[in-house]
Amino acid sequence: MKERLEEIVEEIKKEFPGDYALQQIHIARKILSREAEEKGMGFIEYIKSEARRIKREKEGR
Q1: Which domain holds residue 22?
Q2: Distance between CA atoms of 24 and 39, rounded to whole angstroms?
Q3: 8-56 per-position pLDDT tens digit
Q4: pTM of the entire predicted model
Q5: Based on the structure, what is the number of domains in the chain?
């Protein structure tokens, strides 16, 4: 996983040189996309499921 993360970071730095904020957004999105793919979900579906999970945890369920 660490190697893949380093690959993502380098790839994004090349795409968006000099824009740290944009790099961070795209790194996060790539990581989330990868997690969604591993769980067999689409990106939006995964984000919604994580939001529901976090909401349930906050509510103490």
Answers
A1: 2-59
A2: 23
A3: 999 999 999 999 999 999 999 999 999 999 999 999 999 999 999 999 9
A4: 0.77
A5: 1
